[in-house]
Amino acid sequence: LTCYKVFLFGAADFKTYPWIGLFYLSVTCVIFWYTCVYSFGGCVVQFFIVFIFFVCSTIHAVDASFQPLPKWYNSDSDSLLQVNHNKMSGYTLRYHYWNNQVNLLGAREHQLYEAILVPVLKEGLEDASNLSVSYSPAFEEFHWHFIRLYRDGHLIKELTISDIKQEFVEPNHKLSLLYGGKTSLAVIPEVQEGDKIHYAYSIIGNNPALGKHSSWKTYFTWGIPVDFQKFEINTSSNQPLYFREYNQAPKVDITQT
């Protein structure tokens, strides 16, 4: 009876949140496995062990994807790719550009991030060559838009799925038990000192526990230098927004279009 209830719950969640559904289906297999140990013998147990491994491999065999930029997104990064950056003592990396835009006009919340990362010293090459993004696949979608490598103002390489190493690992093993978080890793080859890594990605969706409410924050003090920074929320005039600034942060500019 317990096994039957868990299976129904997992099947119901599978339609809305596939990851949660697979979790409950796995729990069902474990319960049934213990039943088989004392009831049907080793053959049935072996069958369900194989099935559990199949479910686990399905969960972790998630393919990354590249999607075009949405029409609502506004970028002003093209001119910055031609601008030289200044080295600052004590830093091996710097963000030449950071743009975070949130769109609330669609069916789901959509956050898009665009950045230009520069390894100003050779000690920063390893960090610059590895891009990582964390998200919660139970209720969020993740997509790369592009990953481009520039050298001396010229495009050297634009990565595709076949060009990058894509892994999905838990960012925090203890915390991931609560929210099932994943981290997408992209490894960029042949990065040299002074190159510009221009990349963009989207995270679509919001925690269902928050309902129709959302919150965002942006920092203006980073651990590395940032030359140009932008944060924008796109929503309707009927949607109330509440802002609060801390530590002399810039005032919010509200524009109707």
Which structural class matches the secondary elements? alpha+beta
| Average pLDDT metric | 76
Biggest beta sheet attributes: 6 strands, mixed
User: Overall 3D geometry?
Assistant: globular
| N to C succession of SSEs | HHHEEHEEEEHEEE
User: Beta-sheet strand percentage?
Assistant: 25-35%
Number of strands: 9
Strand arrangement in the largest pleated sheet: 5-4-8-2-1-9
Q: Determine Rg (CA atoms, Å).
A: 23 Å
Uncertain regions: pLDDT < 50 for 5+ in a row? 1-17, 49-62
Note the gap between the termini.
58 Å
Helix content: 25-40%
How many H/I helices? 5
Fold and architecture overview:
The protein has 5 helices and 9 strands, in the order αααββαββββαβββ. With 257 residues, it is α+β, with helices and mostly antiparallel strands. β4 and β5 (154-158) form a beta hairpin. α1 (2-16) packs antiparallel against α2 and α2 runs antiparallel to α3 (42-60). It is globular, with a radius of gyration of 23 Å.
Describe what is shown at a glance.
The protein is an alpha+beta fold and 257 residues long.
